[in-house]
Q: What sequence folds into this?
């Protein structure tokens, strides 16, 4: 792992890195593509809502020797939908199945009577309303709306409005993708799903906020220097927190993956699947969006700020000047792909003139950004 | 404690504090919580209905007189949402409410809930009216007997018997219940309710007969315009009078029947207990203020009088109505200066009015904490649009079954093991700190959840269990943020001890800001939503708070202490803080290796 440690150090110093900000257009494109797929999936296939949301049929049987599992299988076969089965104090069963109309319900009823060996007339069939009625769903939406407004206000105060806006876009991006995956995969949407989705709220922002925090620190004195543009510093912030982002994402995804693949897949537990799928997709999307979407967006917004534009001009002017002094290749490369290897080359262009390799090493100390005091 | 010696003071933000002491406090708190858990005997968290099963109550809606077509989808849905809030007031008890068929409502409450209380709460219609008192007397049928201090020992006994009837749940007769648990205790603890003093003066014997007939008048208009008797003794009035005379408030059946089938506009007879716990019967005018005029209500403890009361705030319209009725009543002679607070047909209290009153009122009576809070809860969430009868009460098995929980726990354990493997592989020695912190956080979460079960009815359902498993990762995040900061400081060339202290203020800020966002999500969802979402929000908020607590009071002090150990401070290659492994080295061999094997997918 020392390899990783060294890599971490190099990332930290900005010796290596991926040009997240520079290549943002690609990632925006990918995100837009995914989002559109998600929305189309949602529009075409719609969500498969569970009985908790739309109600269904409920069968109450008289006392029977059949077990809950048996009844579950029988009903599922008969109706084609997963059933919720509970044993009642009387020894009977309460079986709830989603999406049945009266006719289907009758068919299921007679099949149940056959398989459970009870008198059909004694099975009571009724339509059951959702216990996650519209009220709960509506209130959850209201809550989501209020939360978004508050969090934007908070982030605007703690950071600035551009970051708040970018974080909000990233959040919506994550939620859309997760919901879209549900539509595409066709998993049933249960309360567990909704709860998983809401967990993402906090998590997606958590990740974004950590990157923003480093960005804020890095850009504190940005106008007092002329070495880097905002975008480049933003890119450095992402890279320097990259190890952390990867680690936290891996650590958060491992338990969820355990739930999804082992709990849900191998042991075949339905509810676990519902929750962990939404969490898995959401967490992954959250980590992705905080790096590839949120921060580049901030850079985009920021670069429109007159102050930052002026800074950019100064930076480019200076680079040109030093390029004219005799470093054409190096500076040119950097101007072309700003931030590709930020923090090393331009560190001190004047005395960095000698050998390229040595210059990297020295420049890498990077003591001059606002990142470190 | 050990080392405020050399040059550490120069970094104000990064002083190590007193890690030993903080740690000891933290451990004491943890041991206390764990001890509390074992002492209280609730060593496992309560499980929700999906995992533990529980009780299922089926309620059948009944048409109220005068509203034959009231059983429709809208009313049923309203009833569902009101019952939902009643049984799940705090939002953490994981009860489920849904309609079944045309006119049934199923209420599922998890095992371990106070079933009796839940049944009372779901069944109570909570039709609340403020009615002017026309007359009243002792609650026994012998009309002419003036009520000096009418306490036949028998009546108390019968009252008890009636209460037993209640327990059997035959009727949804709520108001007698608040009185029940404390009938004897509060008999002395009487209420002098400030402006709303309940008039305890025994009703004048004179009014028993003739007064009754006078006042029990037509009832459509006269009590409104002027409570002065309208002397017309039409058949309706006579019937009412007869009913009043015959009414025996000491029996449950009679109380229930007393004003069945009346509408708010009728003049009615009703029963109620006075502050001595004796039954009295009333003739009451048409309702002036209704339960829908109540904006908010809660059971509170009145310090001055040392008793539980229920306070109510009226809505704007309710305030106006209340002002007008109290203004009118204050002009009149006893007993007609009283108004009765009638809940589901029973008089809860009948305070007298001496002046015009404004936007709030209180009900004092023989409440104990439970009954006061229950009533406040019920009034806040409003009256059911329909009355319900309990059709069946039966136990239900968990909908998910034990194997789901087991699967979840196994999966969680495997996930946790993977997390540990990853942490050890990457952070080496530091992983020990992370693991110990995770264990501390796990213990805290578990004990608090176990303790909250009996305290506020908190129940864990499967989503919450999953949430707790996921919280492992989210908690580990904070450690990672801190560790990475420390490593960054070491990469800057610092030695471990200053690195640990310098890294902390920055890591702290990051952790606080991001945890605040999580907590904000939890708080908003908890306040705005109902039902399971609320339960989830509670879990999320709890784990977020615990995350902060653990990082501040456990991980940081442990880190500070361990930074003094040679293993870490010396940068042992297994400590996770080995400067060499962190890439701190003279820039000799750093060539221009284009080593960016960062997989964007992973990121």
A:
């Amino acid at each position: 792992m020392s390899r990783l440690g060294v890599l971490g150090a190099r990332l930290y110093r900005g010796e290596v890195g991926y040009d997240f900000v520079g290549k943002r257009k690609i990632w925006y494109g990918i995100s837009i593509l995914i989002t559109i797929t998600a929305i189309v999936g949602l529009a075409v296939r719609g969500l498969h809502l569970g009985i908790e949301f739309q109600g269904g049929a409920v069968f109450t049987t008289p006392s029977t020797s059949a077990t809950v599992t048996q009844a579950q299988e029988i009903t599922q076969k008969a109706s084609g939908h997963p059933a919720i089965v509970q044993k009642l104090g009387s020894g009977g069963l309460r079986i709830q199945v989603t999406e049945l109309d009266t006719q289907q319900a009758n068919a299921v009823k007679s099949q149940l009577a056959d398989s459970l060996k009870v008198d059909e007339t004694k099975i009571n069939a009724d339509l059951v309303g959702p216990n996650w009625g519209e009220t709960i769903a509506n209130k959850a939406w209201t809550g989501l709306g209020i939360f978004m407004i508050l969090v934007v206000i908070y982030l605007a105060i703690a950071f600035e409005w551009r970051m708040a806006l970018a974080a909000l876009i990233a959040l919506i991006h994550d939620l859309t993708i997760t919901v879209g995956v549900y539509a595409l995969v066709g998993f049933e949407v249960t309360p567990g799903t909704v709860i998983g989705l809401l967990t993402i709220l906090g998590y997606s922002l958590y990740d974004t906020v950590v990157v923003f925090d480093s960005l804020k620190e890095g850009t504190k004195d940005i106008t007092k220097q002329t070495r880097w543009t905002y975008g480049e510093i933003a890119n450095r912030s992402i890279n320097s927190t990259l190890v952390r982002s990867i680690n936290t994402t891996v650590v958060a995804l491992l338990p969820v993956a355990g739930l999804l693949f082992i709990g849900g897949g191998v042991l075949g537990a339905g509810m676990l699947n519902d929750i962990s799928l939404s969490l898995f997709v959401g967490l992954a999307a959250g980590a992705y969006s905080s790096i590839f979407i949120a921060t580049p967006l901030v850079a985009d917004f920021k670069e429109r700020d007159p102050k930052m534009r002026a800074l950019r001009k100064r930076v480019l002017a200076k680079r040109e000047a030093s390029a004219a002094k005799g470093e054409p290749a190096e500076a040119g490369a950097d101007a072309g792909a700003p931030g590709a290897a930020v923090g090393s080359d331009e560190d001190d262009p004047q005395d960095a003139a000698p050998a390229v390799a040595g210059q990297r090493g020295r420049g890498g100390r990077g003591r001059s950004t606002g990142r470190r005091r | 404690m050990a080392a405020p010696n050399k040059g550490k003071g120069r970094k104000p933000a990064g002083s190590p504090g007193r890690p030993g002491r903080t740690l000891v406090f933290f451990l004491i708190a943890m041991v206390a919580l764990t001890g509390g858990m074992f002492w209280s005997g609730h060593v496992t968290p309560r499980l929700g209905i999906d995992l533990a099963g529980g009780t299922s109550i089926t309620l059948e809606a009944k048409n109220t007189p005068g509203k034959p077509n009231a059983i429709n989808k809208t009313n049923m849905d309203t009833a569902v949402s009101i019952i939902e809030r009643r049984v799940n007031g705090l939002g953490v008890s994981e009860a489920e409410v849904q309609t079944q068929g045309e006119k049934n409502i199923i209420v599922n409450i998890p095992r371990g809930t106070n079933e009796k209380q839940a049944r009372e709460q779901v069944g109570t219609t909570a039709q609340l009216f403020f009615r002017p008192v026309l007359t009243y007397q002792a609650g026994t049928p012998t009309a002419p007997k003036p009520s000096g201090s009418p306490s036949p020992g028998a009546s108390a006994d019968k009252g008890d018997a009636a209460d037993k009837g209640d327990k059997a749940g035959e009727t949804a007769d709520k108001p007698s219940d608040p009185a029940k648990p404390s009938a004897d205790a509060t008999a002395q603890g009487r209420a002098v309710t400030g402006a709303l003093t309940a008039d305890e003066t025994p009703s004048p014997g004179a009014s028993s007969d003739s007064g009754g007939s006078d006042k029990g008048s037509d009832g459509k208009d006269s009590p409104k315009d002027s409570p002065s008797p309208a002397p017309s003794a039409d058949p309706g009035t006579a019937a009412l009078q007869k009913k009043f005379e015959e009414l025996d408030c000491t029996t449950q059946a009679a109380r229930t029947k007393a004003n069945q089938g009346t509408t708010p506009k009728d003049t009615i007879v009703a029963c109620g207990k006075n502050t001595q716990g004796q039954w009295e019967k009333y003739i009451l005018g048409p309702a002036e203020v209704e339960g829908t005029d109540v904006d908010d209500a809660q059971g509170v403890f009145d310090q001055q009088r040392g008793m539980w009361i229920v306070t109510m705030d009226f809505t704007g319209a309710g305030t106006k109505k209340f002002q007008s009725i109290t203004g009118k009543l204050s002009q009149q002679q006893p007993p007609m200066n009283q108004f009765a607070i009638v809940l589901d047909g029973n008089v809860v209290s009948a305070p007298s009015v001496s002046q015009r009153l404004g936007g709030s009122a209180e009900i004092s009576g023989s409440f104990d904490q439970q009954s006061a809070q229950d009533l406040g809860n019920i009034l806040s969430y409003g009256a059911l649009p329909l009355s319900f009868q309990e059709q069946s009460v039966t136990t239900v098995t968990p909908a998910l079954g034990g194997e789901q929980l087991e699967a979840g726990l196994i999966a969680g354990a495997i996930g946790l093991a993977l997390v540990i493997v990853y942490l050890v592989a990457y952070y080496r020695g530091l992983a020990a700190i992370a693991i110990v912190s995770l264990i501390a956080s796990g213990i805290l979460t578990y004990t608090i959840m176990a303790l909250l079960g009996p305290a506020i009815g908190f129940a864990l359902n499967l989503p919450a269990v999953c949430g707790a498993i996921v919280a492992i990762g989210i908690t580990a995040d904070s450690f990672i943020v801190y560790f990475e900061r420390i490593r960054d400081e070491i990469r800057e060339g610092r030695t471990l001890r200053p690195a640990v202290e310098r890294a902390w203020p920055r890591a702290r800020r990051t952790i606080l800001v991001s945890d605040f966002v999580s907590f904000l999500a939890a708080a908003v969802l908890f306040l705005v939503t109902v039902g399971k979402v609320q339960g989830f929000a509670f879990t999320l908020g709890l784990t977020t708070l615990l995350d902060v607590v653990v990082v501040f009071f456990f991980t940081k002090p442990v880190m500070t202490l361990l930074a003094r150990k040679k293993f870490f401070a010396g940068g042992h290659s297994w400590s996770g803080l080995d400067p060499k492994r962190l890439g701190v080295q003279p820039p000799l061999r750093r060539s221009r290796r284009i080593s960016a094997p960062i997989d964007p997918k992973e990121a």
About this structure: Residues 1-14, 143-233, 586-603 of chain B have pLDDT under 50 and may be disordered. Residues 15-48+400-569 of chain B form a domain with the Multidrug efflux transporter AcrB transmembrane fold fold (CATH 1.20.1640.10). Chain B has three domains: 15-48+400-569, 54-119+384-396, 125-383.
